[in-house]
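ok so for the tutorial part 2 we go from a plain amino acid sequence to predicted structure tokens. step 1 is just haveing the sequence, like this:
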Amino acid sequence: MSTSFPIPPFAQKCRLAAQSAFGASYEHPFVVALADGSLDSKKFRFYQMQDARYLEAFSDATAILSTKTNDPIQKLWFLDAARMALVVESQLHAGYGEKLGYTAKDIAELQLSPNNRAYQTHMVATAHTGSLLEGISAIAPCPWLYIELGQHLLEKLGTIPENHPYKDWLALYSDPGFNDYMKILLETLERAALESGASTQQKAIDAFLTSVRYEWMFWDQAWHLQKWSV
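step 2 — the prediction. this is what the tokens look like for a chain of 230 residues:
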């Protein structure tokens, strides 16, 4: 696996356990169409609105994790990560809201899709009831996949065409500035792993794999414009 940030031993274990599911996101038709610009704007709108609500839950989970460490530097990092998730929402999602016709009020009143609700529940519940290691493992796949995928797509495209309908999304997640974010996150994951026993480490690997699977399901729900069956 090739990345622009170091991957400590426990993160390598998590990634190897989830390798098949992680790689599946690269091949999902939603991601392929997003990259080449052919993605239906209705599907992207669905994705963006659901993602805005997902990032609120990601913010909640990282804020919860700040209460599970006595290290003030770690506390500040988790709180900054919680804030960053909401800043991404307000900037990227608001910009696309103007283009695609939705407002902050529409997002607030949005009915969560089944996959989104399940993913949020998994992530927040793990942060709340699990160990620090399990909680970090549950949130790590989202930024890891997006950063790696964004940089992969930029390398594949070479440059992002000015007329690409999703150039803002591609530019955001291919930004090398996120490498420092991942470096710190995975270092924090490693420290928590070193302080945990084998049983807790396995639970954390399972939490990581579950989140990676939900990431694929997030693309899939948007591709199919998922609704509740009843």
